[in-house]
Amino acid sequence: MLSLTPLGTNGLYPTDKPTSGYLVKGDNAAILLDIGSGVFARLINAIDVKSLNALVISHFHFDHASDIGVLKYYLESNGLKLKVFAPLDDSPLCKVVMGSKCFDFTPINNLQKVVINGLLLNFYQVNHPVLTFGVKITDGVKTLAYTADTNLCDNLDNLLSGANLALMDCCILNGMWKESSPHLSAKLCAELGKKHGVNVLLTHLKPNLNQAALLYEAKRFYPNCELALLKEYTL
């Protein structure tokens, strides 16, 4: 059984909700997707961190990776080591991962495939100002797609194809969107979801933007869109 538990759904900065972080569990695997500000506190209340098999960091912007430092302290103080899959770049947070013995770091490449305790992960480079990867995760029965932060790109079709549930970057309304935007709009998320017949959870929500308006816009184009909540979803 494949499940998803959002631990943080804000973009940019935390409020009562942390920024990006998502716990994915299979029958024998637990994987954390991103570890933004405030995510670690929710992680330790959701799972025994010792049972976490891997951390996937989509990109090294602070709202997706800032809690890597406190995770490092936790692992070091408990004599643990964790696999980390992330882009290789020159960001300070990447250097934290590369420089610590508690992280077993594997750089992500476009179209790379990794198997973690029965879950198959397929990575796809997406369209964001820094090197960023979306990931499709399957247990062979159900499939989750996570776009990470992105604008339109060809790889989104590869990422969403065959997925049962899509966790999609929805940071802006369509009237705010441009071809040069770093994020998708609610309308674009809905259109992509409809194209691939996948249920959509809208995430990376901008705290100072009316989220009801985002949801209203998305549902106008595709009813199977919802705001991602801090709860467990079973695929």
Query: Strand share of the residues?
Result: 25-35%
Structural class by sheet pairing and helices: alpha/beta
Q: In CATH, what is the class?
A: Alpha Beta
Largest sheet: 7 strands, mixed
Can you name the CATH architecture?
4-Layer Sandwich
Q: Which fold does the CATH topology refer to?
A: Metallo-beta-lactamase, Chain A
Low-confidence runs: none
Order of neighbouring strands in the sheet with most strands: 6-5-4-3-2-1-14
Termini distance? 7 Å
Strand segment tally: 14
Tell me the layout of helices and strands.
Elements lengths: L2 E6 L12 E5 L4 E4 L5 H8 L7 E3 L5 H4 L2 H10 L4 E5 L5 H7 L4 E5 L5 E4 L2 E7 L7 E6 L4 E4 L8 H6 L4 E5 L16 H11 L2 E5 L7 H11 L3 E3 L5 E2 L1
Parallel strand pairs: 3-4, 4-5, 5-6, 10-11, 11-12, 12-13
Antiparallel strand pairs: 1-2, 1-14, 2-3, 7-8, 8-9, 9-10
Helix pairs in contact: 6-7
